[in-house]
């Protein structure tokens, strides 16, 4: 397998843009990635386009990438549409990496774009519910909740179990939100940039106990793109060298039995990269809820079982800490336009490894990990991706 380099990155601001479509968002992100890389549209051999919910929110099915990119210079060459729930962007990145690493392509584009805002919010929430096995929902009589995604009920149930196991409290989940907003206040691409207090988080509307509104990832629109190239191409093009050392993708075990997707994806990535959790300097994780971030500290090996909350309380995972997690604001504050999320994580980590993250920079960052999960199957996510990036070969 060849060495693969992240040569270009670009994204839109994430937010609610009722009058913008997927095409507009995708074009902006792609244009930014092209400008960042210095690579021409005509040099892109293959494109992987991530979008999870357009069919249900906008009605556009089957040829989503071709429609979104029809006015760009990537047309005429392969465009592969990728739908893998919240890990759609991570899956597109995985496939782009595989294309370059295998020698199939010298330049591959991973781009994700999502339009989630709708005049009728029930359309958006109904679309999210498609990430659960519909037969399982019917068997368990999981009724679609009013005013929020079914996933927040799932995350709330996990949060309650984690509280019993670890001694974590709703205040700890609020601390995650405070940390997230503080990080996002330094990120021009984030949806929510205003700081919040613990009391404000705890006092926001209850969604599904113990999760309040601020503890749940928001509805967002946006796009993100990454251009991957072979090391040889990067040397010729003069692209900055951020290496993809590992890129693992796994699905749930039968009935969602453990070990979890996140644990297995992370182990596969660590093994491939020849690194361990102790070598990671900065991370982006799938904080669809505040409680999920703390649990992922443990599943990714950053803390022992039940001890993730100690990392949070000590400030280790805050900007300026030993291991900043979600320094771009994460899903909670940067926003969660599903198809774009996994690639936005890669963009955030790439800026740290380039040393260009500004006030949120993790000084001396050499190795970074991104984890993104998607869907729900039994007791676990339906899939998870883990990617390790470094600025050394």
UniProtKB/TrEMBL annotation:
Keyword annotations: Lipid transport, Lipid-binding, Transferase, Transport
Entries under PROSITE patterns matching the protein: THIOLASE_2
Source domain of life: Bacteria
Molecular function GO labels: acetyl-CoA C-acyltransferase activity; lipid binding
Pfam families for this protein: Thiolase_C_1 (PF22691), Thiolase_N (PF00108)
GO biological process: lipid transport
Thiolase N-terminal domain sequence ranges: 4-232
Classification via InterPro entries: Thiolase, Thiolase-like, Thiolase_C_2, Thiolase_CS, Thiolase_N
Domain Thiolase C-terminal: 251-381
Enzyme Commission no: 2.3.1.176
Protein name according to UniProt: propanoyl-CoA C-acyltransferase
